[in-house]
Amino acid sequence: xxxxxxxxxxxRGIFIKHMLFTFAFIGSMLxxxxxxxxxVQYLIEYNDISSLYDCxxxxxxxxxxxxxxxxxxxxxxxxxxxxxxxxxxxxxxNPLEDNQFYTGTQPLVWKEQAHVLSPDVQPENDFYAFIPxxxxxxxxxxxxxxxxxxxxxxxxxxxxxENGVRPFQNNIDLYxxxxxxxxxxxxxxxxxxxxxxxxxxxxxxxYGVINYLDPIxxxxxxxxxxxxxxxxxxxxxxxxxxxxxxxxxxxxALSDGITHITFTDHQTGCISEFEATVFSEVExxxxxxxxxxxxxxxxxxxxxxxxxxxxTIATIDIQGNVQGHAEGNTLLIYTDSQTGCISSPLQIxxxxxNDPNCVVGTTEIExxxxxxxxxxxxxxxxxxSEKSIESISIYTLDFHLMKYKxxxxxxxxxxxxxxxxxxxxxxxxxxTGEIVNYKRIFITK
Length: 445
Known about the structure:
Shape: elongated
Distance between the termini: 79 Å
Number of strands: 36
Strand content: 35-45%
Strand order of the largest sheet: 4-9-2-1-14
Structural class: mainly beta
Number of domains: 4
Number of helices: 2
C-alpha cells in the first residue's frame, strides 16, 4: 500500500512571501552574481546529546561569502527510515531568516512536502521529503569548502546502531527498471544563491555499526589491519585463534579455527561484529631423502603448486617431483590452491655425485650434458645437447617467462635470439624428454 503526504493549504499572505523571494532572486541575477558554492552533499548523523537525527549539508567545493550567494533557494531533502518508524520534524537550525548582515536568529522552518510508506518497490523503507517553508528570505553565514551545516533535526524511533536512517539516493531508491514509481519525485536537490543544481550525493554517517561485506580469512602467522583504528576497542571471541590489538585493530592469526571479531565504539556504544576464519597450515614433507645428487630426484607431498627458491639448484613440478641441477641448497614452498596459504618451506640439498652424502633418490636419471655459449651473450645464445631438445624458455630470476621456443624434430643443437632483452641475469630452461635443465645466463649490451 502507498500513501503520499498532503500539500499544506495556502495561507493568507503567501503571495507576498513568494514575491519577496522572487525579488531576491531577480536582484541577485541583475547584479551578475552567481552562486559560488558548486557542490554540496547530504549527511544524516545521530546526535547522542539530543537523541535526534541531524540532517546536514557538507560543502564539497566552493564558497559563499556575499549575501546573494548565501540565500537559500529551492531544495528537497528526502530521508529514508525503516518501515513503520515514526519520523517527526523536531528542530530547525539553518538557514536563518533576515540574516543579510549576519544578525539573523530565527531559523527557517522546514516542512514535510510528502511521504510514501513502504512502497511496493522498496517495502522495507518509508520515505519523507522535506523542503524549506519560506516566510522571509533566509540565508546562511559564510560558507567554505569542508563546512558542515545542520539544517533540521528529526525525531525517529530507530536504534541508531542499526544504520536504518539515511538520505535518499537519486536514481537508486524508488526506481524499478529505471523508472520512478508512482509515489512522486523524491529526488534530492539543493540550490543556493541561484537556480543551479549543486547537490552531488550523500556521505555515510560514522555513527552506527560497521558493515563488512565479507568475512575475513587469514592464514596462520599472517596479519591484517581493519578499520577503524581509533575511538573504540577491538576484541576477539577466541584470542587463541586470532589475537587483536585493542587500539589499532591489527589481527594476528595464531591457530586454525573460526572466531568473531567485535568493535565497540567509545562514543555510541554501538557494537560491530564479523566472522574471521584462520585456515590450518598444510603439512608438507619429503617422501624420500632431502639430500640428492645432481641429476637425480626425490619427492615431496602434497602435490600441487610448488616453487623452488632457486631453480638453478633444484626444480619441482606439480606432482611434487624434485630434481637436482647444481650443487647448493634451496627452499621449496607450497601454496594451498583453495586457501592461498603458504606452507613453511622445505630445504633441499643438492650435492655432486661423488659426495659421500649423495643419495640417488626415487628415480635415477642421468643429467643431460648441455653446452651453452656464449655466456654472457649479447645477441644470440647457442645450445648444444646430447639429447633431443623439446623446448627452450628464458625466465627472470623471480620466474616470469620472457621467451619460449618450441623445437620440432630431434634437434640437439639450436639457438635463441636475446637481441631485444634487457641486460641482466636470467634462467634458461631446456626441456630434454622428461628431464628439465636450468642454467643461469647473463645478457649484456
